[in-house]
Amino acid sequence: MHHTLLFTVISVLFWSSRVSGCEGDCIVDITRAFLGNYSTPVGGVLNDLATQISTSMLPVAARPQNPLTLLDPIIIAYNNVSYDSLETAIFPSFFHGKCERFSKDGKDPEGCPKPNCSVVCGTPGSMVHFYPILRYLAFANTRSVFVSLMKPGSDTFTQVQNLIDDAQRCSATTRMCKRRRRSIKFAAAMNANDDVSHHRWASRSPMDLGFSPATHGMGLSPRSSSTASDLGKILGQFGPMLEKACGGHANNDTNALQGCSWEMAMKAYILSFP
Ligand SMILES: *[C@@H]1O[C@H](CO)[C@@H](O)[C@H](O)[C@H]1NC(C)=O
Ligand SMILES: *[C@@H]1O[C@H](CO)[C@@H](O)[C@H](O)[C@H]1NC(C)=O
Ligand SMILES: *[C@@H]1O[C@H](CO)[C@@H](O)[C@H](O)[C@H]1NC(C)=O
Ligand SMILES: *[C@@H]1O[C@H](CO)[C@@H](O)[C@H](O)[C@H]1NC(C)=O
């Protein structure tokens, strides 16, 4: 009796996971593959923005050795939310459900679930067939997560603004720098265990601000409102810069986003899942 029930439960689980396509490892690994691939164009844009911030907003003595550290609050927050956000955008927001629902006889339509399934459902073949949409989803999600983290007035924007204000003061007041560095290192340590989406460009010793020692007074720091407006202008370039880094044409067209397509490798990878 018990055995029969258990067998039934197992068969149902096995059968439903077989027919419903991309689940479990397939979802996790494909989401991670896009996050990993995006670390290159995203890293390039972040480095560019950080360099602009450092050179246009900080006196020479206050510039960190690695400008990217100025964006650490944004990078940490991105690493925290990017996986869930992208997974949801792909599965189930677009790719979900069984393909059989598209046929009258209850069987999978031709090419479904693999290798090339012309109805939108949650299978590898569907992701291959609608690859231009998948590619655009990954782009649009990456862009929107960063745009919201860089939005003037957001927590992460304000944290970056504070780092810049402090760096400006640092060049005049070494003691204050040390205090700020300690509290930021603590915040970094709190995040050190989170390796879900620990990207190459964020994995360098994250919070070593590396300010040059103060050699001469730089005067008073400018008022925060001007920091906010200058910072807003620089970070506001993120969307257009990412689109450019991705080869332009941010849409669902067949030949869109060629710099962030990875089409051959990604299709082969998608089809490697059962
Ligand atoms: C993109 O991801 C796929 C699947 O993981 C991988 O095969 C490919 O090498 C990656 N390409 C780049 C440029 O990172
Ligand atoms: C990480 O994200 C969760 C929500 O997904 C949020 O509650 C938490 O505060 C975030 N942690 C950091 C360090 O940003
Ligand atoms: C999938 O099939 C369509 C025709 O339905 C074809 O145009 C397309 O090239 C195929 N894609 C792949 C990756 O085989
Ligand atoms: C891309 O295609 C999806 C699904 O058809 C649609 O919802 C979305 O609006 C399209 N976006 C663009 C920019 O073409």
Commentary on this structure:
- By secondary structure, the chain is an all-alpha fold.
- The protein has one domain.
- 58% of the residues lie in helices and 0% in strands.
- The longest helix has 33 residues, at 25-57.
- Bound molecules: 2-acetamido-2-deoxy-beta-D-glucopyranose (NAG) (4 copies).
- Residues 133, 136, 251-252 line the site of one 2-acetamido-2-deoxy-beta-D-glucopyranose.
Short description:
The chain is built from ten helices and no strands.
End-to-end separation in angstroms reads 32 Å
Mean pLDDT: 80
Q: Which ligands does the model contain, each kind named once?
A: 2-acetamido-2-deoxy-beta-D-glucopyranose
Put simply, the count of helices is: 10
Strand portion:
under 5%
Structural class: mainly alpha
Number of structurally distinct domains? 1
Largest sheet: none
Task: List the topology elements.
Layout: H1 2-19, H2 25-57, H3 72-90, H4 124-129, H5 131-149, H6 155-170, H7 174-191, H8 224-235, H9 238-245, H10 263-271
One 2-acetamido-2-deoxy-beta-D-glucopyranose binds next to α3.
Signal peptide: 1-21
Keywords: Signal
Considering the chains and any ligands shown, give keywords for the structure.
274 residues; mainly alpha; 0% strand; elongated; binds 2-acetamido-2-deoxy-beta-D-glucopyranose
